Amino acid sequence: MTVTSVGLGGRAAAGGTARRTRLFREAGLAYLLLLPALAAFGVFTFYPFLRNFKLMLYETPPVPGLPAHYVGLHQILPTLTSAQFTQSLVTTLVFVVLVVPISLILGLALAVAAHRRLKGIGVYRMIFSSTVVSSVAVASVVFGTLLNPVVGLLPWLGINPTPPALENSTWALPAVAVITIWQFLGLSFIIMSAGLQSVPDELLEAAQIDGAGPWTRFWRMTVPLLSPTIFFALVVSTIYAFQSFGAVDILVGYQNAANLHANVLIYEIVNTLQMENNPGAAAIMATVLFLITLGLTLLQMRFLERRVHYAN
Amino acid sequence: MAEVSFEGVTKRFGDSVAVDGLTLRIADGELLVLLGSSGCGKTTALRLVAGLEEVSEGIITIGGRVVNEVDPKDRDVAMVFQSYALYPHLSVARNIEFPLRQRGMAKEERAAKVKEAAVTLGLDTLLDRKPSQLSGGQRQRVALARAIVRDPQVFLMDEPLSNLDAALRVQTRADIVALQSRLSTTTLYVTHDQVEAMTMGDRIAVMSHGVLQQVAAPEDLYAQPANTFVAGFLGSPGMNLLPGKVAHGPEGDVAVEVSGGSVPLPPALRAAAAGAAEVVLGLRPESLRLDPVGPLQAEVTIVELLGAETHVICATPDGSRVIVRQPPQAAKPAPGDQVHIALDPDPAALHLFDAVSTQRIAGP
Amino acid sequence: MPRHSRRLRRAGSYAALTLGAIVVLAPIYFTIVNSLLPSDQLAHQPPPLFPTDPQWHDYSEAWTSGHLGRYMATSAIMTITIVVAQLVTSTLAAYAFAFLRFPFKRTLFLLCLATLMIPFEVTFITNLDTVSSLGWFNTYQGLAVPFLATGFGIFLLRQAFLQIPKDLLEAARLDGYGHWRFMVRVAVPLARPSLAALGVFSFLAAWNQYLWPLVATGGTSPLDTVQIGLKQLLGTSAQNIPIALAGAVIAFVPLVVLLLIFQKQLVRSLTAGAVK
């Protein structure tokens, strides 16, 4: 009887065949248990992923009713260099740059402020995490109204852009960015808070005794020790920003997105798929998105390896 | 002068009292050990001196200056934490250098001091490593180096040896004592290990439940414990404590009647014992021996052979435990044997405590 | 530091915290207030801080003529289906990975984790085709079916199962337990905290989804979820703004209650990848 194999259900019997049967049964059970999940993945994750590569090779003509025809790799370059796609990519990058740093800084600031042993701090922490349960739709409705030129807060604050914020080509994207920042704030706070809690109190006490004031402690102790968490939040928020869609859809709408420089990547993909009816081009753009996400995730995993050297 | 003093210091956490009316003075250059089991308030007292906790009542002074309202960084104290609290993202050299940078010292001077501290603690080959690459003992030395590099008025040490293995502990114990002696820095040292306390302290302050039980030099603490707690805490194995009553004999002799027999009191204690009714008799295992004509009768429960000595653990009729320490060559009884126990004739071997107040009943 | 300076610092902390809380809560507060305003007060400058004449009917209207009741029902059905499915598939798969020996174990596990790297925005294109060709476009099944399994859930539950001491497994074996009984009687109860964390996380993710319900039901549909419903609600004239806001509040509040009850579990699942 091997030490490593701890099987249930089989009776210990003499002879190698009995053991082989038991292992056989165990494997059978395992595959049975895995079947539901693997089937679901197969049909709805892996198959679509692979089919994407096939879709990339077919072009659907803009004339409705005509079938797609095989063009091989020839569709890829034109799609990627098309004005529409490049503008979308640039817009998305601007969006990411707007959303990510501010989200992280605000999340960190709130987490630091709430990392005290004060009375009633639990209430504050609850409030700061609350936006994590908000959906894109809720946030859009809330902020859509806030930014409404007639009933919103902006006129009171003296801000009266013409055309109104959400129909304004300069301000539409920043407006959507604000919505996304607010929505992501809860998660940013939760992640940063968890990170702060992993910085041992004793280290900060030692630094205090060694003569470091609050600012020094923050910049020389907390932030370096928090860097894995900050990096994680960076990757998560960047992926999140790249995948934003709902706010643009609800508040800006089909017709306007491109004109208002708010056509982020997903938006472009959905648009290409549904409005232009060109799954091939959509698949190409989706692949670009996949590569970006993959790159970011791999970056995070590489950094994770280095982190192991730190805390020990 | 770097004396440290507690004057009526109390520290409350919500409803519970961690330190209760502590009054204690530590002389300049002294190594005072705060000894007690966990939860007795010793670490809290240390942190109060460091300034990591605020005093609820009372005054703490360092070097004659009241420091209640002074920030930790301005108190000129250095602390060695139980977990060492080394900065994981800094090298050993930078860890040691850290307190000096905060004081705005010039670069060359810093380097010189770091070198000095590193050499003193045998760390000069490890200066570029990170804490995670060091062994437990090495980390401990880095923590010490970081403390001494500033040449502070006071060292605060919170159970610095408890994370080391036994052999390393013995060696490091001696090293710390030598270091402290050389630097003559006032040191407050917290531990629960009485062996550490006895071997390292100039004086020991024993605490229990936030209250100071007794403060004295190790020998005095051992020879004349002020109450039953201190008596039972020090010594390995601890002092045997037997409840009993004072009985007056016909010829003016006084004895203590305990379960298992009657132990006569030496003349010096007779007068003091007269007033007491319920008492606790304290007898250290090393001052007892098995003797057929001894006053105490008991049954052997276990015999522990330790090589250099033997512990005979007995039980008196009411179940009280009495441990007798025998030299290895003495005849060993077997479990279940009925034995008689005799006392060392030296009057100092007999300790008497009031059963109610737990305080020592002392002779003139 | 003198005592009054310490008190000042504490007051400063509270001030900063309150400021942060106001910034976070202000949009929600504004929404609630405006959902109760009569139409003539809507455009009032400065915006009123408190509804003096609360129009509660906005909420009932959102529920009925705004169809929010129907939307909530659809969301509920879809979400519960997804949560149950994910819990079941993840538990079964995680059990296999944690307690059984079989060939290709490592490869299959990596495969499950790999699904986390394939964003939904890539797979939805084909999933739409798949669902349509099955005739499930604009149906409850269509809404739920791409999300029946999750690599995250398998990862989380496998972690939890691996925490169970080997001794327990061996003791159960000596008592004659088969795998089924062990799973149901021992493993699952012991992994309850992680199951709760996964459940809360799945619920949140499913309820708040936007992209798939949008494309899987095509335009205005009786089968819209709350999220799409909100979009419909907003896309009408200014008169309906309070109703849309009421809808947003109705959509948001149950989740806040969820957060209050399950805060610990939610935080646990969200930080599962971040801090060790």
List the topology elements.
The complex is a heterotrimer of chains A (312), B (364) and C (276).
Chain A: H1 16-55, E1 58-59, E2 69-70, H2 76-81, H3 83-113, H4 121-129, H5 136-146, H6 172-197, H7 201-209, H8 214-242, H9 246-252, H10 254-257, H11 265-274, H12 279-311
Antiparallel strand pairs in A: 1-2
Helix pairs in contact in A: 1-12, 3-6, 3-8, 5-6, 5-9, 6-8, 6-9, 7-8, 8-12, 11-12
Chain B: E1 4-13, E2 16-26, E3 31-35, H1 42-50, E4 57-62, E5 65-66, E6 77-80, H2 92-102, H3 107-120, H4 136-148, E7 154-158, H5 166-183, E8 186-191, H6 194-200, E9 203-208, E10 211-216, H7 218-223, H8 228-233, E11 240-248, E12 254-258, E13 261-264, H9 267-274, E14 278-283, E15 288-290, E16 296-305, E17 310-315, E18 321-326, E19 338-343, E20 350-354
Parallel strand pairs in B: 3-8, 3-9, 6-7, 7-8
Antiparallel strand pairs in B: 1-2, 1-4, 4-5, 9-10, 11-12, 11-14, 12-13, 14-20, 15-19, 16-17, 16-19, 17-18
Helix pairs in contact in B: 2-3, 2-4, 3-4
Chain C: H1 3-35, H2 57-63, H3 68-99, H4 105-114, H5 120-133, H6 140-144, H7 151-162, H8 166-174, H9 179-190, H10 192-207, H11 211-217, H12 226-234, H13 241-270
Helix pairs in contact in C: 1-13, 2-13, 3-7, 3-10, 3-12, 5-11, 10-13, 12-13
Written overview of the protein:
The complex is a heterotrimer of chains A (312), B (364) and C (276). Chain A folds into 2 domains: 16-55, no CATH class; 77-311, MetI-like (MetI-like fold), CATH 1.10.3720. Helices cover 69% and strands 1% of the residues of chain A. A two-stranded antiparallel sheet of chain A has the order 1-2. Chain A contains 12 helices and 2 strands, in the order αββααααααααααα. Chain A has helices at 16-55, 76-81, 83-113, 121-129, 136-146, 172-197, 201-209, 214-242, 246-252, 254-257, 265-274, 279-311, and strands at residues 58-59, 69-70. Chain A is mostly helical and 312 residues long. In chain A, helix 7 (201-209) packs antiparallel against helix 8. With 364 residues, chain B is α+β, with helices and mostly antiparallel strands. Chain B folds into 2 domains: 4-226, Rossmann fold; 230-354, Beta Barrel (OB fold (Dihydrolipoamide Acetyltransferase, E2P)). Chain B has helices spanning 42-50, 92-102, 107-120, 136-148, 166-183, 194-200, 218-223, 228-233, 267-274, and strands at 4-13, 16-26, 31-35, 57-62, 65-66, 77-80, 154-158, 186-191, 203-208, 211-216, 240-248, 254-258, 261-264, 278-283, 288-290, 296-305, 310-315, 321-326, 338-343, 350-354. In chain B, the strands form 4 sheets. Chain B has a 6-stranded mixed beta sheet with strand order 6-7-8-3-9-10, sandwiched between helices. In chain B, strand 12 (254-258) and strand 13 (261-264) form a beta hairpin. The longest helix of chain B is centred in the middle third of the chain and has 18 residues, at 166-183. The radius of gyration of chain B is 25 Å and the shape is elongated. Chain B starts with a strand and ends in a 10-residue tail after the last strand. Chain C is mainly alpha-helical and 276 residues long. Chain C has 2 domains: 3-55, no CATH class; 68-270, MetI-like (MetI-like fold, Orthogonal Bundle). Chain C has helices at 3-35, 57-63, 68-99, 105-114, 120-133, 140-144, 151-162, 166-174, 179-190, 192-207, 211-217, 226-234, 241-270. In chain C, helix 1 (3-35) packs across helix 13 (241-270), helix 3 packs across helix 7 and helix 5 (120-133) runs parallel beside helix 11. Chain C starts with a helix and ends in a 6-residue tail after the last helix. Chains in contact: A-B, A-C, B-C. Chains B and C meet through loops of B and loops of C.
